[in-house]
């Protein structure tokens, strides 16, 4: 392309193409060491950028100074307009935390027990300090924010960025800012660990955020947490509908979860759990002496089986259970004799359709992209297609996770009703087994989806793909903890059911 | 997607009167002649518009079986509206209304709007309960009344929407404290920039949107 072909669009495309090629070169030339950090990549790329810049790009980059770091931010800016919808820049609805990014990251870093990411993080920081003479952390903060909102690259305030992070939906941001350092290791374990740590750290500074741990603290209920998340997303969506003309398939976990009636089932389950709990308490107050001691011991046994749930992610093998039939078998085994087949069927149906969706995604993808090559010679539109395709996978992953979680909670709710209704003896062990099966399935599916994303985006730069992959892992981790929390809600129900059965047998 | 209010409804009444079918007709606009017995409670949701405002109805469709009663009672609390349904072709379902009503009044808030529904109005030839009887019962107990058919969809929209209108009026009159979620009303997520959806635009109402 020459300068005489001076339409703005063409120039824009040229820059994108250049960047893309640069990225590919970089991937080829770089040794497979972890310092292909996305934090570093743009800077390098910027250095390689050819001197004569297209006019269009200059207009976009008008407010920039010629320093190295800002040029690199210009580079981010282009991808940033894509990233915009990835991260779907929400307005900061939760403004309770004034804690700076620096502080949070610092805390997160110091409290991280994982050695290799920590080393990596130190390394990455060093590099950044060398490169732009700024605080590495600050810089990351700026980048993350810029990426989310390309319009105001120079008003990036790290503090503001953190405030945004507090919304559960946007947990992604924190990971995004950390990704260069930590995501490299890739494992879900590491992510989960970091996720938990990060939440802890943030929660310290924000009493409101403690709601995600509501069930542990008993300050608020799980359904409230999820309802709030959903409401925030609804706000976001309205904002998007109003302002954003470029319609993208942004997947909102919370809203989808509500659409599948997960929130309602959870609310109902909470009602039953709460009522059972107060019934148990009132029964205990009427007893005394040996009777009380004995009942307490029996209830303790039930409690124990609720605290024994261990779920080892390592064991999850993504190769197995391609069509979800194994999951169905396990679920049915766990639920044998619990007479809630209809709900269980819904769940395994959802799982099977997810599995077939994944299979569909893996197979026709290559043909499709070949077709794209033929029909869409414009580099820009081709890239857009690839980008949209990633988004479709991401959206499908989030949707599936939301559906499976909602169905799992529905299952627990129906179980609770049947236990109270039939008053048969249900072993807590069966329920914990069920929880493990469900969590494994969530983990398995998230692995399948992310490997699908990785395959589809093998030519892609990390900063396009990583946030999507991280997002899927994050929601999978959230899903698993919602399921585990819902499982805990069954405890008082088993307790009261036990007390009632006891009373019946003593009457006889 | 955004709504000004969310109302929680419960549907109650004897087993087999067509509660789940009414819900299905309202949410999905279809009729399913054979319906599984409801276990505990099932859910439906739909958006309606009243007075230019989007209102989301979250409907709890309870099991009618007597044996589930102790569980379903737990769900009454926090409902803004109730549809109390009987079957015009089965006199016994009409005779049980008093028990249902007592139960509902006892386990929910006193301001709850109750709509009495005589369902299966399409089965005129098998009618056992006259329309006038329904009307009289409703008048006596301060309920709204309608005969519906989940099969033909006759009056189904109206039943759900008129109940919402009544609740909406009560909000306007200040009978319902909308900041108290126990009343079964929630204010929708507030858009920070547009106040057009804010009812009366009192600033204090903002807090209600978040949570309790």
From TrEMBL, chain A:
PANTHER family on file: FI01459P (PTHR12842), PROTEIN FAM114A2 (PTHR12842:SF3)
Region (Disordered): 20-74, 110-151
Family: Belongs to the FAM114 family.
UniProt name for this protein: Protein FAM114A2
Species this protein is from: Collichthys lucidus
Superkingdom assignment: Eukaryota
Pfam families: DUF719
Assigned keywords, A-Z: Phosphoprotein
Automatic annotation (TrEMBL), chain B:
Keywords from the named record: ER-Golgi transport, Golgi apparatus, GTP-binding, Lipoprotein, Membrane, Nucleotide-binding, Prenylation, Protein transport, Transport
Matches recorded under InterPro entries: P-loop_NTPase, Rab_GTPases_membrane_traffic, Small_GTP-bd, Small_GTPase
GO biological process, one term: vesicle-mediated transport
GO molecular function, one term: GTPase activity
PROSITE patterns: RAB, RAS, RHO
Highest taxon, organism lineage: Eukaryota
Family listed: Belongs to the small GTPase superfamily. Rab family.
Any single GO CC term annotated in Swiss-Prot or TrEMBL for this entry: endoplasmic reticulum membrane
Cellular localization per UniProt: Cytoplasmic vesicle, Secretory vesicle, Acrosome; Endoplasmic reticulum membrane; Golgi apparatus membrane
Protein name as annotated: Ras-related protein Rab-2A
Native source organism of the sequence: Channa striata (Snakehead murrel)
Membrane topology: Lipid-anchor
Start-end of Gly residues biased regions: 201-212
Region (Disordered): 189-212
Pfam families hit by this protein: Ras
CDD domains in alphabetical order: Rab2
């Amino acid at each position: 392309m020459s300068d005489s072909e001076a339409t703005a669009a063409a120039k824009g495309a040229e820059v994108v193409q250049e960047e893309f090629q640069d990225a590919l070169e970089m991937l080829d030339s770089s040794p497979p060491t972890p310092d292909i950090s996305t934090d570093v990549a743009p800077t390098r790329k910027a250095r390689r950028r050819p001197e004569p810049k297209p006019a269009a790009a200059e207009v976009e980059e008008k407010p920039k100074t010629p320093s190295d770091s800002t040029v690199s931010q210009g580079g981010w800016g282009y991808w940033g307009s894509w990233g915009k919808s990835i991260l779907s820049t929400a307005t900061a609805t939760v403004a309770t935390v004034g804690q700076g990014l620096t502080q949070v990251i610092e805390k997160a870093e110091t409290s991280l027990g994982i050695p290799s990411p920590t080393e990596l993080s130190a390394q990455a920081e060093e590099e950044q300090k060398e490169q732009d003479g700024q605080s590495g952390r600050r810089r990351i903060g700026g980048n993350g924010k810029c990426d989310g909102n390309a319009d105001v690259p120079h008003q990036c305030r790290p503090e503001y960025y953190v405030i945004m992070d507090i919304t559960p939906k946007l947990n992604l941001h924190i990971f995004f800012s950390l990704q260069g350092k930590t995501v490299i290791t890739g494992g879900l374990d590491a992510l989960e660990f970091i996720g938990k740590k990060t939440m802890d750290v943030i929660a310290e500074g924000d009493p409101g955020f403690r709601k995600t741990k509501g069930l542990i603290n008993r300050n608020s209920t799980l359904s409230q947490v999820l309802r709030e998340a959903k409401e925030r997303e609804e706000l976001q969506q309205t904002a998007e509908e109003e302002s954003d003309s470029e319609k993208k398939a942004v997947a909102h976990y919370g809203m989808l979860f509500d659409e599948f009636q997960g929130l309602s089932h959870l609310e109902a389950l909470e009602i039953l759990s709460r009522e059972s709990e107060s019934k148990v308490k009132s029964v205990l107050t009427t007893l005394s002496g040996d009777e009380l001691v004995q009942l307490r011991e029996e209830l303790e046994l039930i409690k124990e089986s609720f605290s024994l749930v261990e779920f080892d992610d390592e064991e999850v093998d993504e190769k197995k259970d391609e069509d979800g039939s194994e999951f169905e078998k396990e679920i049915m085994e766990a639920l044998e004799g619990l007479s809630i087949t209809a709900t269980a069927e819904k769940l395994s149906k959802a799982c099977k359709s997810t599995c077939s969706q994944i299979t569909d995604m893996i197979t026709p993808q290559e043909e499709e992209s070949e077709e794209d090559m033929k029909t869409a010679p414009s580099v820009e539109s081709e890239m857009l297609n690839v980008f949209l395709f990633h988004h479709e996978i991401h959206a499908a992953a989030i949707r599936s996770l939301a559906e499976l979680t909602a169905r799992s909670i529905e299952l627990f709710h129906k179980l609770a009703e049947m236990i109270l209704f039939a008053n048969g003896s249900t072993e807590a062990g069966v329920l914990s087994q069920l929880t493990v099966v469900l969590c494994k399935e969530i983990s398995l599916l998230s692995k399948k989806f992310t490997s699908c994303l990785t395959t589809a985006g093998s030519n892609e730069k990390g900063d396009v793909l990583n946030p999507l992959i991280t997002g899927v892992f994050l929601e999978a981790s959230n899903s698993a903890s919602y399921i585990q929390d819902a499982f805990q809600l069954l405890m008082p129900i088993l307790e009261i059911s036990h007390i009632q059965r006891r009373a019946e047998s003593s009457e006889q | 997607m955004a709504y000004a209010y969310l109302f929680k409804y419960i549907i109650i009444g004897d087993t087999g009167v067509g509660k789940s079918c009414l819900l299905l007709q309202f949410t999905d606009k279809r009729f399913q002649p054979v319906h599984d017995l409801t276990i505990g409670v099932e859910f439906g949701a739909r958006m309606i518009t009243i007075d230019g405002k989007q209102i989301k109805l979250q409907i709890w469709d309870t099991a009618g079986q007597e044996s589930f009663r102790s569980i379903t009672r737990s769900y009454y609390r926090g409902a803004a509206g109730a549809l109390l349904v009987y079957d015009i072709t089965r006199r016994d379902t009409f005779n049980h209304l008093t028990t249902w009503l007592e139960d509902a009044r006892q386990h929910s808030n006193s301001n709850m709007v109750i709509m009495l529904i005589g369902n299966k109005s399409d089965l005129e030839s098998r009618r056992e309960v006259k329309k006038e009887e329904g009307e009289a019962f409703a008048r006596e107990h301060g309920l709204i009344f309608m005969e519906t058919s989940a099969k033909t969809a006759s009056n189904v929209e109206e039943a759900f929407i008129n109940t919402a209108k009544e609740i909406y009026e009560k909000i306007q009159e200040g009978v319902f404290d909308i900041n108290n979620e126990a009343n079964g009303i929630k204010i929708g997520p507030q858009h920070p920039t547009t106040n057009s959806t804010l009812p009366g635009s009192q600033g204090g109402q903002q807090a209600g949107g978040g949570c309790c």
